[in-house]
Amino acid sequence: MSIIEARQLSKSFMQAVKDPGLKGAVKHLFIPKHIEKIAVQPLDLTVEAGETVAYVGPNGAGKSTTLKMLTGILVPSSGTVTVNGISPHKNRMQNAAQIGAVFGQRTQLWWDIPITESFSLLKDIYQIPDSVYKTNLEQFIELLGMNEFIHLSARKLSLGQRMRADLAASLLHNPPILYLDEPTIGLDVSVKQKIREFIKKINLEQQTTVMLTTHDLGDIEDLCKRLIIIDHGSIIYDGSLQEVKSRFATERVIFFQVSSPLPDLFRKLKQSDGMKLDIQSELEFSVSFDRYEYTASEVVSRVMEHGEVVDFRMEDASIEQVIKSVYDGKLNLNSSRNSEGELVSCL
Ligand SMILES: Nc1ncnc2c1ncn2[C@@H]1O[C@H](COP(=O)(O)OP(=O)(O)OP(=O)(O)O)[C@@H](O)[C@H]1O
C-alpha cells in the first residue's frame, strides 16, 4: 500500500536579483527584479508504507523543498501530493498528527523549558493517551540515552543531545511517517550510531515509513534499501542501493605489502592503462583497477611475478565514491552494463 503519492509535483520560487552594494540595494527598492527559480521540476513519487527511503543529491538539488511539500510547509506550484490519503498543505492539522519531522538545523523543542516539559506539551498538543505517552517516553529515553539531559532546557543541550531529543519529540505520537532532514549532520560517530539504531528499530517494530535526506552516505548504507537521487530538481535515479553498487561501484583496490622494493613493477604499473598505482612506501602500495577489466587474481599474479608478497587485502569502491561521481557529473545513472561489462546508455 502506498503512503506517499506525488504526481507532477513541482515548486518554483521567485528570487530577487540585486546588483551588488548599496547602489544595487537602493535600485532594487525602486525597480525590483526577480527571476523564477525552479527548485523541483514536476516529479512523480510513490513510497510504500514501511519503506525507508534516502532522498539524496548535491547542495541545492531540491531535497528540502520536496520534503517541505510533503510535510505541508510549502504549497506546491503544480501537481498533486497525498500523504496517507491527505493533501498535506490543505489539511495541515490532520497532516501534522500523522507525521513526525526532524529538520537537522532547527528544533521543535521549546528553547527555555526542560525537555520533559516540552514533551508533555507535545503530549497535550497531539492528545497522546497517557499509556502511549508513558511507554514511548520510557523506551525513547532508554534507546536514545537521554537520561543525563532530559531535565535540561533545549538551550543547554549539545547538538547530539538536541538531535536525540528532537527525534524522540517527533515520534511521541506514533506517527506512521517520519521525515528526517539531515538527521546526523555534525554528530560524532557514537551519537550517529545511536540515532541510526533507533530509526532502524522504529521502522522495524512500528513499520514507520522513513524518508530522509542526508549528505552522510553512512546513513544510507545503514538505514535505507531504496535510494532516490535528485539533481537540479529532477529525479535521476530511483532504485535499490544494492543496484547502484553492483552497477557502478566497479573499482577495486588491492593493498600490498612486499618483502623488498619492486622498482620494475612500479615502472610497468605507472605505464599501464587499466591499473593505477598508489605508493605508500617502498614496501607498501595499492593497485586500483576496474573489476570488469581485470580479475583480482590477475592483479595479484602480476605483482607476484616481481617479488614476494608478504600480505594483501582487497577493498571494493564505496557507495560514497559512486555517488560522488554522480554529483560530479562523471557517471550517468541512466546507463547500464552490457554482457561485456561496458557502460551503455539506457536513454
Ligand atoms: N524560500 C526560497 N526562496 C527562493 N529560493 C529558494 C527557497 N528555498 C529554496 N530555494 C532554492 O531552491 C533550490 C533548491 O533548494 P533546496 O533547499 O531544496 O536544496 P537542497 O537539495 O535541500 O540543498 P542542501 O543540500 O544544500 O540543503 C536552491 O537553488 C535554493 O536556492
Fold and architecture overview:
With 347 residues, the chain is of the alpha/beta class. It has 2 domains: 49-245, Rossmann fold (3-Layer(aba) Sandwich), CATH 3.40.50; 251-316, 2-Layer Sandwich (Alpha-Beta Plaits). Helix content is 36%, strand content 30%. The strands form 4 sheets. It has a 6-stranded mixed beta sheet, with helices on both faces. Strands 11-12-10-13 form a 4-stranded antiparallel beta sheet. Strands 2-1-4 form a 3-stranded antiparallel beta sheet, covered by helices on one side. The chain starts with a strand and ends with a strand. Adenosine-5'-triphosphate binds at residues 13, 15, 37, 39, 57, 59-65. Keywords: ATP-binding, Nucleotide-binding, Transport. Residues 17-257 form the ABC transporter domain. GO terms for molecular function: ATP binding; ATP hydrolysis activity. This is Sugar ABC transporter ATP-binding protein.
Features of the shown structure:
six-stranded mixed β-sheet; ATP hydrolysis activity; 2 domains; ABC_transporter-like_ATP-bd; Alpha-Beta Plaits; 12 helices; disordered C terminus; 347 residues; binds adenosine-5'-triphosphate; transport; four-stranded antiparallel β-sheet; Rossmann fold
Estimate percent helicity.
25-40%
* Strand order of the biggest β-sheet: 5-6-7-3-8-9
| Sheet with most strands | 6 strands, mixed
Overall geometry comes to globular
CATH architecture of the largest domain: 3-Layer(aba) Sandwich
Ligand list: adenosine-5'-triphosphate
Beta-strand portion reads: 25-35%
Q: Structural class of the helices, strands and pairings? A: alpha/beta
CATH homolog superfamily of the largest domain: P-loop containing nucleotide triphosphate hydrolases
